[in-house]
Write a structure and sequence with these properties.
- By secondary structure, this protein is of the alpha+beta class.
- The protein has 12 helices and 8 strands.
- The strands form 2 sheets. The chain has a 5-stranded mixed sheet, with helices on both faces. Strands 6-7-8 form a 3-stranded antiparallel sheet.
- α4 runs parallel beside α8.
Length: about 300
C-alpha cells in the first residue's frame, strides 16, 4: 500500500487500540519506503483482561482475525477498495518490554546493521535487550553464554555512542540511516567484508535490500575516511567485556555463570571418562571370557 494509505490506516488503528491498551505505538518506519506490506502495532497493559479479541476486531472493523499469542492478525478494510484489506499485526508484550520492543524494531533494518558492528566485540541485541557473551561458553552453547545487560534504549544508545535525538526521529534517507549506523563506536569496515560474513549475515545479504546496499555500496565507499577520535585506541573484545561488566554491574553474575559452566563441564568430562572406563572394562572382560572359553575347548 502507498505511504498515504499506510499512515491513514495506522493512525486509525492506533486510535482504536488505545481504548483497549494503556500503551500502544508503531515502530519508526525505515526511510524511503514507497510501499508497505502490512502495519505492525505494539501494545501493552490491556485495560480489560482477558483481552476481548472479538470486541477489538469489531472496533477495527476487521473482516477476519487470526488470534494467537503474542501476535494477532486483523484484516482491516483497505480505504476505497471494496473487498481488499490491510493486514494489521498487533503484538502484545509485557509492560517492562514495551520500550525495548519499539526501540529494537524501529528504522527497519537498522539493528541488522548495528548487530554486525557489535558482534565481534561480544555484544548481542535481541528481542529482550542488550547482552554480552561469555567467550568460554559461546562456542559450546550460545544461549547460555548470554549475560543480560540492559533493555533501556537510552542506555544502549549511550553505550554505543549513538545520538538519542537522531534515533528518535525518522531518517529522511537511507544514506542518513547508514551514516548513523556507522557512527557507532564499534563500527569497523572489516566486519562487513562479504567472504568473512557469518551465515546469518550472508542470509541477510540475500533477503534484506538495505543490508546488501550497506555491505556492497556504503561500506566500501566509507573506507579511508578520517577515523573517529575513539579509534585512537583500538578496542579489544576483552576491554569491551570488562567495560560492560563494570558499567552494568554484572561482574558477579559473570563469575557465577562461568564458575557454574566450568563445574558442569568438569562433571560432564568425569561422566564421559567413567563411561569410557566402563566400556573399556567391559571389552576387556569380554575378551578375557572369550580367551578362557577357548582355553577350555583346547583342554578338552
Amino acid at each position: 500500500m502507498p505511504p498515504a494509505v499506510y499512515r491513514a490506516v495506522r493512525e486509525q488503528c492506533l486510535e482504536q487500540v488505545a481504548s483497549f491498551f494503556q500503551r500502544s505505538a508503531c515502530p519508526i518506519e525505515a526511510p524511503e519506503k514507497t510501499t508497505f506490506g502490512d502495519i505492525d502495532l505494539i501494545v501493552s497493559e490491556p485495560k480489560i483482561t482477558p483481552l476481548p479479541v472479538d470486541l477489538l476486531a469489531k472496533a477495527l472493523n476487521a473482516e477476519r482475525t487470526i488470534h494467537s499469542q503474542p501476535t494477532s492478525c486483523f484484516a482491516v478494510p483497505y480505504p476505497g477498495r471494496e473487498g481488499n484489506y490491510v493486514q494489521v499485526d498487533i503484538h502484545v508484550c509485557e509492560s517492562k518490554d514495551f520500550d525495548w520492543e519499539i526501540f529494537h524494531q524501529s528504522h527497519g533494518d537498522l539493528w541488522n546493521l548495528l548487530g554486525s558492528s557489535i558482534r565481534p566485540f561480544g555484544l548481542t541485541a535481541n528481542n529482550t535487550g542488550l547482552h554480552v557473551r561469555i567467550p568460554e561458553i559461546e562456542n559450546f552453547d550460545r544461549k547460555k553464554s548470554l549475560i543480560f545487560l540492559t533493555a533501556d534504549p537510552h542506555t544502549v544508545l549511550d553505550f554505543l555512542h549513538l545520538d538519542r535525538a537522531v534515533f528518535s526521529r525518522s531518517f529522511d534517507t537511507v544514506e542518513s540511516m547508514f551514516e548513523f549506523a556507522s557512527s557507532n563506536r564499534f563500527f569497523r569496515p572489516e566486519a562487513y567484508i562479504r567472504p568473512d560474513l557469518k551465515a546469518n549475515d550472508r542470509k541477510r545479504l540475500a533477503q534484506r535490500e538495505f543490508y546488501r546496499r550497506f555491505v556492497d555500496d556504503y561500506v566500501p565507499c566509507r573506507t579511508g575516511r578520517p577515523q573517529r577520535t575513539d579509534d585512537v585506541h583500538e578496542l579489544t573484545r576483552q576491554e569491551v567485556l570488562d567495560e560492560a561488566l563494570e558499567k552494568f554491574d554484572k561482574r558477579s553474575e559473570y563469575g557465577a555463570r562461568l564458575q557454574g559452566w566450568r563445574k558442569e563441564r568438569e562433571e560432564l568430562a568425569h561422566k564421559q571418562a567413567s563411561r569410557e572406563w566402563r566400556k573399556r572394562k567391559a571389552a576387556a572382560d569380554e575378551a578375557y571370557a572369550e580367551a578362557w572359553i577357548k582355553s577350555l575347548r583346547r583342554s578338552t
